Every structure is written in structure tokens, then in C-alpha cells.
Amino acid sequence: MLTREQMAQRVARELRDGYYVNLGIGIPTLVANFVQPGVDVMLQSENGLLGMGAFPTEAELDADMINAGKQTVTARPGAAIFDSAQSFAMIRGGHVDLTVLGAFEVDVDGNIASWMIPGKMVKGMGGAMDLVAGAENIIVVMTHASKSGESKLLDHCTLPLTGANCIRRVLTDLAYLEIENGAFVLKERAPGVSVDEIVSKTAGRLIVPDVVPEMRFQ
């Protein structure tokens, strides 16, 4: 299985020069540490920071410089700091080229459930609903199965939806998949993970090509 850092490193390969990118809370925030040399991107945090850098060293630490998950971060040269209203105007206006989000469930229709589990404490929707509505290019990063072993890739989401028909790409700790024509299509598998394991842990309709390459990490 991929580690959290490897998942972030794989997602970072999807960043393109000139992109404005929103990183959600959790594993997505780690993507800031793996932007490839020569790729110039502006990372946005919905609390009002455009130009987020990698996590700080002890010498760089500034307790007032935080992302939406209240983690301390750095700001790259050219960064801008503004209020939350302006940040969400950017998101709702479709000015974000790529959004990276965590999730509880994703289904074959591209629906995403990411904000609540009934019976558990709910802190609120956060900005996820705005992000999935305002972005056309979204990657979901999550574990393939829950701690109890239940698949998170389903035919139909069972939890309250964050957005409908908006997800086209999913990276899990086992695989990279794309959603096409009502099915997950297996594109890559994690090092050492077999196709059979991925099939057994995917509850939603899954299409497996004849050849599924293994992800490569340096």
C-alpha cells in the first residue's frame, strides 16, 4: 500500500505549470511538499492564502501562517493573503485549475461524500461543497477501504453527498482510477499490490484493462 507521502507524491505529478491548485484538508495538504522542480504552481488555501509553500522547518515556523486545516505552512514568493470571502469568490468563480480533496466515499457516477457520517460529530461542511461545484478538475485522495475493511469505492454512495457527478479521478493507497461511463477504470496499481486485491476491495463496478502498470517512485 502507498503511504500518505507516496499518495501526495503521486498526485503532485498531476500538477501542471501555471495551475492554481486548491489542497483540501488531510492527505491533500502534503502535496505542497512534492511539487516537482520546474513546475510553477500557486497553491490556494480556502482560508485566504494563495501561494502556499511547503510545511515549515522549525526555523521557518510562524504560528499565524496556517492553512484551512489549521496547520502551519509557508508562503512562497509572490503569495497573497486575503479574506475568506475573496477566497471563495475565486473558488466559486471557477478560477481554480485543480482541486485535491479527501473523501469518505466515491461512486461510479462521480458522486462524492466527504463531510459527515451520521451519528458522529459534524464540524460542518467546510468549503468542500463550493470546491466541487466550482471546479471541473478534481482528484480525490483517500484510502481504498475503511478501517473495518469496507470499500469506499461504491456503486452508490451511502453517506450524505457533498457533490453529484463531479469526480473523475481517484487515487487510493492501492490504485489510481478514473471514472468513465458509470464505472471505475483501473489505470495504475500501487507497488506490490495485485489486481486481484484491488478487485476484491472495490465494491463499485470496476473495469480492469489487460495491462495495469505499477506506479513508480524514485
UniProtKB/TrEMBL annotation:
InterPro entries according to UniProt: 3-oxoacid_CoA-transf_B (IPR012791), CoA_trans_fam_I (IPR004165), CoA_transf_AS (IPR004164), NagB/RpiA_transferase-like (IPR037171)
SUPFAM superfamilies for the chain: NagB/RpiA/CoA transferase-like
GO molecular function, one term: transferase activity
Keyword list, A-Z: Transferase
SMART domains with a match to the protein in the record: CoA_trans
Presence of keyword Isomerase: no
Keyword Transferase in annotation: yes
UniProt similarity note: Belongs to the 3-oxoacid CoA-transferase subunit B family.
NCBIfam families: pcaJ_scoB_fam
Protein name: Dehydrocarnitine CoA transferase subunit B
Species the sequence originates in: Phytobacter diazotrophicus
